[in-house]
Specification:
It is a single chain. This protein has eight helices and no strands. It is mainly α. The chain has helices at about 1-10, 10-45, 45-60, 70-75, 80-105, 110-115, 120-160, 165-190. It is elongated.
Length: about 190
């Protein structure tokens, strides 16, 4: 155990962990802001636009995103920006889908009550719609916050530049190599 703890506390591993954690947090912040705003906007539009947008977002949610990572690298370059964007897109789609569905399904009577009390568009959004959809938005944010770090880590593992990804690949490669050497020595009688 002390060997594993000492390996984790090496300066290069602490730096890699700090880099990856910063990317996670930035991606989650992007997901929280953009996912909620886009989902709210798409959920409150006309019903037919909502239906079409919901279908498009559902198809995007079903797509495997890993094959698209090289495009992120081409557009944004190696390293931090492409990994953050890849992490954000992993979490953004479910947050948009859940938020837009919740905001489209707000009880019409609640909205009518706000209107009858003289609420304008901003007051209706702030005092009626947002409190009504808050549980669903928080559920969506939990899913987005779980998927965003996965996207960042996948980006780091696919094209290792810095962060935890290259360190994990290095440890995996050297551990597997050491095990193969041990098995060869044990079974073959030599080293």
């Amino acid at each position: 155990r002390t060997g594993a703890r000492a390996a984790i506390l090496q300066p290069e591993n602490c730096l890699a962990l700090t880099q990856t954690t910063a990317r996670f947090l930035i991606a989650v912040a992007i997901v929280a802001v953009l996912g909620t705003v886009i989902g709210l906007a798409l959920g409150r539009v006309h019903r037919q636009i909502f239906s079409g947008a919901r279908d498009v977002v559902t198809v995007l949610y079903a797509l495997p995103l890993v094959p698209f990572y090289p495009l992120f690298v081409l557009w944004l370059g190696l390293g931090m920006r492409s990994e953050i964007a890849f992490g954000a897109i992993h979490g953004l789609i479910p947050v948009i889908l859940i938020t837009m569905t919740a905001s489209a399904n707000v009880d019409v009577n609640l909205v009518a009550s706000g209107d009858s009390m003289g609420a304008g568009a901003i007051a209706r959004l702030r005092l009626v719609i947002l409190p009504a959809i808050l549980p669903e938005v928080l559920s969506g944010l939990k899913i987005g916050a779980a998927l965003s770090p996965l996207g960042v880590l996948l980006g780091e593992l696919q094209i290792p530049a810095d962060g935890v990804g290259p360190s994990l690949l290095h440890q995996t490669t050297h551990t597997a190599h050491a095990r193969r050497q041990q098995r060869t020595a044990a079974y073959g009688g030599g080293g």
